[in-house]
Amino acid sequence: MLDFLFVPTVLFLTVVAPIWIVMHYRSANRAQRGLNDEDRQTIEEMLEAVDKLTERIEALESILDDTQPKWREVRARTAQQ
């Protein structure tokens, strides 16, 4: 019985375990590092773009409210169909 488990145990300890340990610590290191400065700057730029687009959408909706007061109702009816 011991001979039956010897070969898989040796294979596990020489092949699988080292790869497993390296991958574990690599992913732990990446998780600990977090975002770098370039990623943070990109996120900030995206958030600024989102804010600008939100303002534009609100401006367009206010224009539509002034020129076509029932546009929301028409849009809701067409969305239901």
From TrEMBL:
Q: Which residue ranges run through the membrane?
A: 6-23
Q: Which Gene Ontology terms describe the biological processes this protein takes part in?
A: phage shock; regulation of DNA-templated transcription
InterPro entries xref list:
Phageshock_PspB (IPR009554)
Q: Key word Flavoprotein present in the record?
A: no
List the coiled-coil residues. Answer: 36-63
Which branch of life, at top level? Bacteria
What this protein is called in its record is Envelope stress response membrane protein PspB
Classification of source organism: Bacteria, Pseudomonadati, Pseudomonadota, Gammaproteobacteria, Cellvibrionales
The gene it comes from is: pspB
